[in-house]
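Methods, example record. To illustrate the input and output format used throughout this study, we show the complete record for Two component LuxR family transcriptional regulator. The sequence lines were provided to the predictor; the line carrying structure tokens was produced by it.
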Amino acid sequence: MAYQIIIADDHPLFRAALRQAVNQAVEDVAIHEVDTIAALQDAVESNSDLDLVLLDLKMPGAHGFSGLAFMRGQYPGLPVVMVSGSEELPVIRKALDYGASGFIPKSSSLPAITSAIQVVLNGEIWLPDDVKSKVAQMESAPTDFSEKLATLTPQQFRVLGMLTEGMLNKQIAYDLDVSEATVKAHITALFRKLGVRNRTQAVIAVQQLEVDNPGSSDLA
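The corresponding predicted structure is encoded as:
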């Protein structure tokens, strides 16, 4: 049976590089490409036999590690490997703490990316050789909020992403093609699950999952 792998990255050129690595890593594979968190959710929900997700750290619709935390909570059996332009040790440590099965810097060679994919498909964790021991010695990041985030439904997560972008209920309802009453119900439910009382608290909570490395944001 063919492997089913999702490449989630909003940079077409890097999606092409990842596709090349996937094709070298496994012979029989079906590759699905997406460029937003919403499209990733749709792809996961419509494919029940997925084997791996290669997830760009900076994706439209997610804030920092929120996409990873959500994926690990909703689909715990599906390995997710973070791909990022950042190579900062704290970023790699956080990715592991939030449930990533590996971390691939975008500066990695094609053979290294190919090897990473093979290792994770075999059920192991992959990190660049030069950071393994350093990351292992680092203190784990708190994951309390990420665990709450993982309890959201896909639609609630989409609404949360829109809230953090400053969208009004009317705009959210239009984009999701639902009523404003439905949006309000989603907001009420996600506030309860996240333990917050209003939009401001929700946005501040999500910011906990931002990457503390603004200098690498263009490459992440």
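Annotations derived from this record:
The longest strand covers residues 3-8.
Residues 127 and 162 are 32 Å apart (CA to CA).
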